[in-house]
Amino acid sequence: MKTTGPVLAIGAITLANNVLFNDKPFDWRVPVATGIATGAFALAEKAWPEGAIALAWMALVTILVTRIDPKVPSPVETLNNWWKST
Question: How far apart are CA 2 and CA 54, in angstroms?
Fold first, then answer.
């Protein structure tokens, strides 16, 4: 499945950004939602492979630049803040 990698990366990046880099508590909803999304994308990939793959990669790019929680910077913002501090 070509959508599995990007969707799992979305969950891993979200968790790492929140827990490791911004000291937020572990949110179990993220891994559960990631598992559900991975299954949904695998099913969608069987029906419309090109669309599902494109959507998975667009979602990955979106998660990098968008804040999920208004109080937590996006992964790109976190990286930029780290870059400025070094």
Answer: 10
User: Taking Cα atoms as reference points, which of 9, 28, 26 lies closest to residue 75?
Assistant: 9
Cα 84 to its chain centre, rounded Å, is 23
pLDDT tens readout for residues 47-70: 999 999 999 999 999 999 999 999
Helix (H) or strand (E) holding 80: helix 75-85
CB-based burial of residue 46 (10 Å sphere; 0-12 exposed, 13-18 middle, 19+ buried)? exposed
Domain ranges of the chain: 4-85
pTM of the prediction? 0.92
CB-CB contact of 34 with 7 (8 Å): yes
